[in-house]
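Human: I would love a firmer grasp of how sequence relates to backbone shape in proteins. Take your time, and here it is.
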Amino acid sequence: MFKILRDLLRYNKEFLFGTILILIIVGLIVSSFFSPYDENAIYVVIPDMPPSAEFWLGTTSRGQDVFWQIGASLRNTLLFGIIVAVISRLIALVVGLVSGYVGGRTDQIIMGINDTLGALPNIPILLLLVFVLRDQMTWSMLAIVAALLGWTHDSRLIRSVALSLRHREFTRHAVFSGMRTPQILVREHLPYVMPIVFFTTMNNLIWAIGLEVTLSILGFSDINRPTVGGMIYWANAHSAMVAGVWWWIAFPMLFVVILFLGLFMLAMSVNEYIDPRSRLARMGA
């Protein structure tokens, strides 16, 4: 693992640049744990103060320091994306590996369910659920629902790899040695699909973060929990741009773009690293 990271940092400028961007976001998130203010408290500083030496990124009309709010908001937004990505990856792994290895009727049934769910419009369904269950839809429940809608495409990618692994010689040796199906999937097949899992995790993380920001801006999530979308929601509610408090919207948008760009560059560079021809060409071979 460390050798892969070393090669990526050494030979892939996109990965290096993406890592730097993510470290900036991580630095802001870490700083939020040392905030002198409660993240949910309002009117703790002078409202509508522009960026200055005292307030680096200004203050909001709700009397909150934008710098400390961005750190807490990025933490919650990224946590939402990680929860969605982890749950959906686990589902995609189980479905893809089992379907590809077992095959036959089981594969047809699982892929039939997978394709049916994949054909459904995820975003409209999620918006409908949020609208109907708005009072009961908590932040954690929203993350779980989003995870249950974001695994179908990736499970098919994992299944395609599992199909080829099923006929490999080492799989036959594992079967003849008496290994059970779960052991074969975890010990023999899982290492081969981990690069795909990592790449799809980055993509799913970007999708989940974008989903959370969109829902929060529209007011369809817990607006009292600090998130990047929630900051923009409150800025629009207080007509920040009309009032000239541009920093209330500009800085959250800037840092969420940095987050998206960093994750995208990490995903693309790792995908390129998986391709042996691209990796050898970049290393000068």
The domain at 79-225 is CATH 1.10.3720.10 (MetI-like fold). The chain has 13 helices and no strands.
